[in-house]
Task: structure prediction
Amino acid sequence: DGGITQSPKYLFRKEGQNVTLSCEQNLNHDAMYWYRQDPGQGLRLIYYSQIVNDFQKGDIAEGYSVSREKKESFPLTVTSAQKNPTAFYLCASGTGGGGNTIYFGEGSWLTVV
Amino acid sequence: ELKVEQNPLFLSMQEGKNYTIYCNYSTTSDRLYWYRQDPGKSLESLFVLLSNGAVKQEGRLMASLDTKARLSTLHITAAVHDLSATYFCAVATSGTYKYIFGTGTRLKVLA
Result:
């Protein structure tokens, strides 16, 4: 089935540890995105990538890092520098530009204790 | 910097009633999107509006776009309980791949 797969769905980590969230898509989309959602809040853009080997910071990039080595994959690392990492993380992809919508994965819940 | 605001933030309405959710954005754009999110779930695409005056309808939901006023509306007709969810609008800055989301409107339809 075509779609966007995020893993893990639930993740618990101790404070001070880095954690990597996976996002894979088989939709042949050029653009990929990471958003953060806090409980009862909207979505905030962390990073986005228009093409392989290129990515741009969103509005809240501090404490996060990404890579885009393959078209299908856009992993997000939450580093120990991120002060409040507990949140719901959503990956999205789209054809980019041209007015097309972006589609979301099922999300990953990260809890840091 | 592009900002997207929605109102109201919370909406509790009776079944059978009509209501409108508003989405305002701060810079020029002709690409606006509406999504639905159920509690604890991801976002589902509802509408894509790509030009001034665009109107899209699906069931009891109708979305419109006024690019001159930088305003989109999501109108709910004869609400039913199944429409209870959080609704987000998103705007993509012209010429970029950057999609910015509004604050969301949490809708609760009471039986």
Summary: The mean pLDDT of chain A is 93. Chain A touches chain B through 28 residues (CB under 8 Å). The first strand of chain A starts at residue 4 and ends at 7.
